[in-house]
Amino acid sequence: MHNTPTTKTIIANCLKWILLLSLLALAILPLVWLFVSSLRTNLELQTSPFGWPEKLQWGNYTKALSMASLPRLLFNSILVAASTVLLNSLVTSMGAFILAREQFRFRDVLYTILTAGVLVPVISFMVPYFSMITRSGLYNTLFALILVYTAVNIPVSIFLVTAFMKSIPKELEEAAIIDGCNFFKRFSAIILPLSRSGLVTAATFCFIYSWNEFVMAMLLTSSIESRTIQLGIKFFSSQFITDYSSMYAAVIITIIPSIAGYAFLHDKIIGGLTAGGVKG
Amino acid sequence: MQAAGTKDRWVWVARFLFLLPVFLLFFFFFIYPFFFTVLTSFTSWRGIGSMKFNGFANYTKLISDPTFRKAIGNNIIWALCQGFIQVPLAALVAMILVRKPFGWRTLRTIYYLPNVISTVALAMVWIAIYNVEGPLNAILRTLFGQESRNWLGNPDTALFAVIFQTVIYIGYFMIILLAAAMNIPQSLYEAAKIDGAGTLKQEIYITLPMLRGTLITTMTLAMAYGMRHFESTFLMTGGGPAYATTTMGIDLYLRMDALRYSEASTAGVFLIIMGTLVITILRKVFGSSDPMSEMAQ
Q1: Nearest CA in chain B to A92
Q2: Helical axes B171-182 vs B104-112, angle rounded to 10°
Q3: Which chain A positions have a beta carbon within 8 Å of B291's beta carbon?
Q4: Which of A52, A56, A133, B69 has minimal Cβ neighbours within 10 Å of its Cβ?
Q5: Are residues B187 and B223 in the same domain?
């Protein structure tokens, strides 16, 4: 059954690679273009959208960092994303522990309701979120964002962490109970350390969401003290109106954490995505 | 027995306390907002003061409002493009990658990359790409000698332009489909090969039927996403020009911005209804698969 390549398979192969490579180009060329543009002068940008900079303009980056209150916005974003990840991990690890390792009535119903939150279009809740946050005096605070991001991520995190905790063998816990471990010890000494991998996956999704989030930040904050970097590059881009290369440098700065995180944790992210998908 | 009883009670208290934070957050940010949205949609509330019920006034107003109708229409176009172009394309790529061509792991990783980058950053890039003086026009001019267009500024091309850029997010669906395709037992393909079935036949008679459940799930996700689409369009066009790219989410935001809170809530109710409708219709048409248990993002 030895096949010699026929014209048909050669054409099929070509089409296959054209598709794969054009999608590859679509995924990375915009980013490459952005990066190259961030290193060109404004004059070069105006002359032609393409082209390699005559001299690499790293100065665009220092200019970007000195404009538009970028450092403050970056600091806010880091604070919000880090706090959200911590709060969300704490809250979901506790909740998931009960949902995965304890037996009680309505447990599965509760789990289904919590994870079904993924299907809820959160943007339809702009009015209640805004009204709730304003009435509680949290409008224009970083805490408002932390609270909303933590809550919005609960369905995904509960889904990922509960699934992970369920996969820990019962025997480990039973041995601990015989050794006299109580409820808290079982959580803190057995289940929590063993679920580290699942928690990291959930935390990664949570971080990406909080770092990139735009709509709620726009809705719930109004001044530079509590705005995040995403709003910064959107609304303060007016400061760059004649200085596109610095604006592109600013955008590159904001996506570096995402790309760096993805470079280290892409296996976790892909694993997290497929945790549910394979059940088909 | 007494001791065991008290201990038991403490365990219940502990369980309750452990679940409480998750439950409170879920209640205040999912359950309460839902009822709040539905309730205010039947009032003439404008953010301050008491709520006066006005029945279906907001609903009739929105339905007869051409901009809101346009938004619903655009969301339906979005949902159809996501479900019937994006997902099949993702499935095609998954079916190629499952045969492990050269560099498939790297391709998989890079295809997902745009999903972790902020919409604000990518929207800015696409604004530049679609610019009259931008790269897209430069490419089309040199390759086909086509005249420069204002892709986002022209009502005829704007919707196409904002929908087209979502092709970069294909990696999300592709990864889910690829994982499912990798779970198909190899023995099925070997048996088919012995029976003399070529690659194409194998894909049609083995891969596609085996992927059915996951395809339905990803289509559901994709179309539900199309119905709630907001961010990249809002950032690229703000719903314009002349409402050509508006969606229910953008309509909601603009009404809220104009302090028409109850109308915004009504738009929110429409958004929820349309999203639920898509999920229900897909389940009715394709039979049930359980999207709830398969959601990871």
Answers
A1: B22
A2: 140
A3: 119
A4: A52
A5: yes
Is the same domain home to B113 and B245? yes
Specify the pTM: 0.89
Mark whether B1 and B96 lie in a shared domain.
no
- Tell me what the mean pLDDT of segment B125-136 comes to: 86
Q: Which residues of B touch A126 (CB under 8 A)?
A: 252-253, 256, 264, 268
Domain range for B11 is: 1-32
* Among candidates B133, B179, B265 on the partner chain, residue whose Cβ is nearest the Cβ of A277: B179
Are residues B26 and B91 part of one domain?
A: no
For B168, the closest of A26, A127, A280 (CB atoms) is: A26
ipTM: 0.88
Residue-by-residue DSSP string for B190-238: HHHHHTT--HHHHIIIIIHHHHHHHHHHHHHHHHHHHHT--HHHHHHTT
In CATH, what number is assigned to the domain containing residue B46?
Answer: 1.10.3720.10
Distance of CA B125 to the CA centre of its chain: 21
Q: Do B114 and B3 share a domain, yes or no?
A: no
Whether the per-residue pLDDT at B147 is higher than 50: the answer is yes
Give the distance, in angstroms, between the CA of residue A161 and the centroid of all CA atoms in the same chain.
Answer: 16
A214 touches chain B (CB under 8 A): yes
- Tokens (6 digits) for B88: 């099949």
Residue A277: band (very low, low, confident or very high) from pLDDT cuts 50, 70, 90: very low
Q: How far is CA B34 from CA A57, A207, B227, B273, in A?
A: 50, 26, 17, 12
Cross-strand pairs, B53? B43
Q: Nearest CA of chain A to the CA of B155: how many Å?
A: 23
B24 touches A at CB < 8 Å: no
Q: How far is CA A249 from CA A7, A60, A66, A230, in A?
A: 48, 6, 12, 14
Number of structural domains in chain B: 2
CB of B51 within 8 Å of a chain A CB? The answer is: no
B239-281 pLDDT, tens digit per residue, is 878 899 999 999 999 999 988 899 999 999 999 999 999 888 8
* Residue B162 and residue B256 share a domain: yes
Which among A112, A184, A261 has CB closest to B292? Answer: A112
Distance from CA of A159 to the nearest CA of B (A): 7
Sorted by where each begins, the domain ranges of chain A are 7-47, 59-277
Contact state of A20 with B295 under an 8 Å Cβ cutoff: no
> Highest mean pLDDT range out of A2-6, A29-33, A238-242, B8-12?
A29-33
Does domain A59-277 bear CATH number 1.10.3720.10? yes
Same domain, B247 and B272: yes
**Is A20's CB within 8 Å of B93's CB?**
yes
